[in-house]
Amino acid sequence: MARETEDPGMAKASKVKRQRKKKTKENKTRTVHANLLYDNAKGEENPNRHYANNKIKTTKYTVLSFLPKNLFEQFHRFANVYFVFIALLNFVPVVNAFQPELALAPVVFILSVTAIKDLWEDYRRHRSDKEINHMDCLVYSRAERSYVEKYWKEVRVGDFIRLRCNEILPADVLLLSSSDPDRLCHIETATLDGETNLKQRQVVRSFFDLDCDFDPIKYNSIIECEKPNNDLNRFRGYIIHRSGRRDALYKENLLLRGCTIRNTEEAVGIVIYAGHETKAMLNNNGPRYKRSKLERQMNVDVFWCVIILLVMCLFAAVGHGLWMFQYGDKRPVFDVLSPDGTDLSPIMSAIYLFLTMIIVFQVLIPISLFVSIEIVKICQVYFIHQDMELYDEETDSHLQCRALNITEDLGQMQYIFSDKTGTLTENKMVFRRCTVAGVEYSHDANARRLAMYQEMDSEEEECTSHGGTLPRRDSVTSHQSARVVLRSQSTKSHRRTGSRAEAKRASILSKHTAFSSPMEKDITPDPQLLDKVNECSSQMDFMRFHSQPMSQLPSDLADVIDFFIALTICNTVVVSSPNQPRQKVQLTSTKSIQSNHLQVNKGSSSSLITNRSSNKGCSSMLSSPSAESTLTKLDEEQPPRDLEHNFGPVLPCYDGKAWNLEEGELRYEAESPDEAALVYAARAYKCSLVGRLPDQVTMELPHLGKLNFELLHTLGFDSTRKRMSVVVRHPLTDQITVYTKGADSVIMDLIKPPDTGRKSHFQIVVAGAIMSKEQYACWLQHHLEAETAIQGREELLFESALRLETNLQLLGATGIEDRLQDGVPETIASLRKAGLQIWVLTGDKQETAVNIAYACKLLDPEEEILTLNADSQVSSRSNCFINFTEVSSVLEDDANISIWLLTKYLHSALFSSLEDKFLAVARSCRSVLCCRSTPLQKSMVVKLVRNKLKVMTLAIGDGANDVSMIQVADVGVGISGQEGMQAVMASDFALPRFRYLQKLLLVHGHWCYSRLANMILYFFYKNAMFVALIFWYQFYCGFSGSAMIDQWYLIFFNLMFSAFPQLITGTLDKDVSAETLQQLPQLYVNGQNSEEYKPYMFWMNMIDAFYQSLVCFFIPYFAYADSDVDLFTWGTPFTTLALFTILVHLGIETKTWTWMNWLSIAFSIALFFTVALCYNASCPTCYSPSNPYWTMQRLLQDPLFYLLCVITPVAALLPRYTVLDLCLTDYTSPFLKYL
Asked: What tens digit of pLDDT does each residue of 1174-1193 get?
């Protein structure tokens, strides 16, 4: 326990009782004590001893465990077990066909190659782990009475750590102290989630008011928190002080491993989670592994190869038994005796021969196929990464392939499910229009500006406005040492929290302010609304001089000023200095007012918000002051003040130009683009956010100067509530005011009276209310209880928020639009020509989604649109079946129809009883647009289509709300956009822009599928053709299992002599050029229909293989008939002819010839003859009693051998060449119709 030892007796007994009680909570919570209290105690007495240390180990093997563990993993693949079984079968004398040691060579080679690859990958992980574990940090030492340097791996849970600016966090740390005067710590999470904007973290509230530096020796509290989990956006717990007081802990108090400290010179915290229990490590799942559709089909054909093998072995066994049976009691002189020296019966001979033939025909199962496929896929991924057309210079990001084994699936997609915001659009929210006090302001001038805006002008304008390049963040603080700078650079190598490419991209983007392009910032105000603001400010200025109460301000003007106050302060935007974007603005007290409030006439309402009501609540706390201190302040009586004290110095009158402060234009660090858009919009009307502290927000009004709003509570935005609120004490009225903004579908239900005249083109609604001190104190007391709960905290906070955010008064609404990404309409048009069905699943409202759908050419103005909507889930469920039936009848008459559905209707459509109806309608439509979709509904739709229609699906998105959809689809694609890297981390492929999807699918997907499909079929053909040569020979050797081909050739034929050309073709072959594939998207249908690899193609290749083997067997057979050549002199030409035939066969199938193709074929032929000549010259007794000595040398002197090498491949391949020539003629006819 973290209590002092001077408490005797009862305290010690109560401590034991508490420990017993906490054991029952062990499975739900974690208790963290300060390690300083146990420095002199034995290790087993430290209560933190059971928690993981900070040393990370991502390697799978050790020196001793590598061999057994790697073999165990490789034997999970059935093919490896099969080949090991065959090799071991050779050690049984009665059934062996080859030398046992030689039979082990192929499987040992395959296992060794895989083991070496795994060893190299594990060694790289070991080096990276060592680099990270040996980074240093400052840990408090009781012996030294100061912070000493230690390696990251030496950090333990319960240690106190001092963090400095630009330093990377070594563990998950609870923030206890900060050098920032506001007790804040700014962090950058770019390497964790890709977000480059700064995040605020707050010191634990009980340590907020320390009047001196934090002293770890005096710390005597206990932390109770949740068990380690991978949720980056949640942290629950409470801290228990010696006095018994409990304070709640939130995610805003936790600094996560891998983040970087910014804007804070020093911070101190206690380690809560270390090593593999940190949230960053729990989110590190590594690359994803899936089984592609082609691989699943290949496994079926491997099964058929096993069946063919068993049939051939059974046929040979029966033949051998009959052959032995015809001798009767007269045993042949070459008969093999049993192990005890007696004769074997025909049945036993057949059984033994069956096992022998399995060994001889083992080549029919392609042992090298799986390794070859892995090699080809790695090469394909490499060439995709080298495609510079998939590189985005603006973000310095490239395509990432995170799943290495499904590249061929890219060429077989049938359905694409796409998010809208950030995926089809730039996620650059621009202010378009607004309505205030029931009057709509169209902002026509701003609309014209956006229509004329060009991205190139945006980049040039940004460079000009900032005078070149932005200052580097390394120069933010002057006290930085070289070692700390080195730590900052090592962010890129922090592989556990993001890839090197992601870290590099984050480093580049972090030099710029997020969501701050001129298109987003430079808003042209509406003249009418600007006049309203000026009129309001003039009247307030007049009232300031005459000390008149604010209740005399007309209601329409009061709503205008309240609207812009809400836009300015209802957010979490951080204000940055103009010269150093990552340095927070320091407010000066000389120009700002104190928290003084004017005397209010109790007989009249003086609030700027009229007709307010008062029952309120909050769901989460974000940078809010202590609830207890807030309650104390509410009880204090505020002294009366004059009206002048509520205003700062008078500023010059606004002249319509850009609003700049004396020290230059401020920068806004926003967590979302819509927050930045609203703040910039308010600034265009001279209502500027100029500073933010934990307990106050400062804004500047025209003519009036700066106003300080006392911040009582901040209610953060979350995906469940879809809104955000702030509770402030209004400096002009001394009343507690609630400002709320959020999605129109949510806020409009909280308005009282309900607003029936909502405008469809407004996305964010702003509302407000006032409440008495007593009402707020009552709500805050209940909310504090909800905050300190660990179990069910989310539900309690949601209920508390609902009590606060109800009965609001509508102030206005804003229209924010997103800019469509470049190339999106062209990309969608090409993908639709390719036969892909495109569905857009978005959480946006219907009107916004439809406008974007028309802009990106998903919907055509000339086609008929069917809208399925409902007012409630009950009504939609009752009418869903009827509507689907009616729509089905319409679709029978006209197929050129698109459909969109809203959430409540979609919810009903996903019921099991209506799934088939829904799919029947949706698959018949040209486009499907689902609005107001939740993340769960997105994943349900993708899963439904994939499982019910048995189609290949691709999901693409850019935000955390798209993760479930991306993971459910056959192929998940993440956009590395402005919403962070959550989607990228969950995806199989990551793209910088949506337009790159066109080339990824139509070109690289087509190539990958075509190459692998043809390579797999070629493997089956090649192995079957070579094995069939031995099968035909069995008819002439009494089905004895003998082979006329030397066992060295049998073992290494597929492994060495014929392996390289097919790898080159599988990697580089191109049936159609990239330009043609993009000009003719219709060619993509070839992969959708699996034209390159249909089930009948396997059987056609097997038939062709058996035909070619017949030709390659009987032409040499008749050529050497009645000759006196020995077995190997007659059998070696079979190997040579088979090699020539399959290489020429590969040449016929190759569409694109490069110098590497020629080189690989020449290398294979040269390798074969070199090995044959050396083997025949140096190994006369390697295979006793046979003697292969000088066999190849004699054949090379025989003209008949050369004649066979020309005639046999031509005769074997002539039918295939003829058929392919005819098929090519038929193939070009559909190809030409697209030209």
From this structure: 988 887 666 665 678 888 89
Which residue ranges are tagged as binding site? 419-421, 675, 717, 741, 842-844, 932, 938, 958, 961-962
Residue type, 1099: W
DSSP letter at 405 equals T
- Lowest model confidence (mean pLDDT) among 172-186, 685-699, 843-857: 843-857
Enumerate the known binding-site residues for Mg(2+).
419, 421, 958, 962
Token digits of residue 345? 């019966």
What pLDDT shows up at residue 1185?
A: 59
Query: How, if at all, do strands 266-273 and 172-178 pair?
Result: antiparallel
At 1143, give phi and psi (nearest 5°). Answer: -70, -40
289 exposed, middle or buried (CB, 10 Å; 0-12, 13-18, 19+)?
exposed
Q: How far apart are the first and last CA of the chain?
A: 80
Q: Range with the lowest mean pLDDT among 142-146, 222-226, 520-524, 1128-1132?
A: 520-524
The sign one gets for the Cα dihedral 38, 43, 49, 54 is positive
**Tokens at residue 797, please?**
């906070």
Residue 615: predicted pLDDT? 36
CA 1219 to chain centre: 46
Yes or no: say if 673 and 515 are a contact pair by the CB < 8 Å rule: yes
Q: How many C-alpha atoms does 543 have within 13 Å on its Cβ side?
A: 19
Q: Which of 634, 555, 547 is nearest to 598 (CA)?
A: 547
Q: No. of H helices and E strands in the chain?
A: 40, 35
Helix (H, G, I), strand (E, B) or coil at 599: coil
User: 475-518 pLDDT, tens per residue?
Assistant: 333 333 333 333 333 333 333 334 434 444 444 444 445 556 66
850: tokens are 């439809």
> Using one digit for the tens of pLDDT, what is the confidence trace for 544-564?
777 777 767 787 788 888 899
Q: How far, in Å, CA of 154 to CA of 147, rounded?
A: 14
Query: Pick from 287, 277, 197: which is nearest to 495 by CA?
Result: 287
User: How would you class 591 by CB atoms within 10 Å of its CB: exposed for 0-12, middle for 13-18, buried for 19 or more?
Assistant: middle
Structure confidence at residue 882 (pLDDT) = 46
Q: Contact at 8 Å (CB) between 523 and 684?
A: yes
> What CA–CA distances, in Å, run from 561 to 534, 619, 768?
10, 27, 12
Inter-axis angle of helices 1095-1119 and 1199-1232, nearest 10? 160
Joined tokens for residue 116: 């070496």
| Residue 1075 confidence (pLDDT) | 92
Q: What is the Cα–Cα distance from 359 to 1186, expressed in whole angstroms?
A: 19
* Arithmetic mean of pLDDT, 17-40: 67
Contacts of 242 (CB under 8 A, 6+ apart): 2, 3, 4, 220, 221
Rg value, the chain, Cα: 38
Give me the active site residues, please: 419
Look at residues 454, 645, 389, 434 and name the one whose alpha carbon lies nearest to residue 532: 434
Q: Does residue 689 carry a pLDDT above 70?
A: yes
The dihedral formed by the CA atoms of 667, 673, 674 and 677, expressed in degrees to the nearest 10: 40
Give the residue numbers of the binding site for ATP: 419-421, 675, 717, 741, 842-844, 932, 938, 961-962
**CA neighbor of 1006 nearest in space, from 1096, 1097, 1088, 1067:** 1088
Contact predicate 830/772, CB 8 Å: no
What are the residues whose beta carbons fall under 8 Å from the beta carbon of 624, sequence distance 6 or more?
694, 711, 712, 713, 714
Q: Is the pLDDT of residue 674 over 60?
A: yes
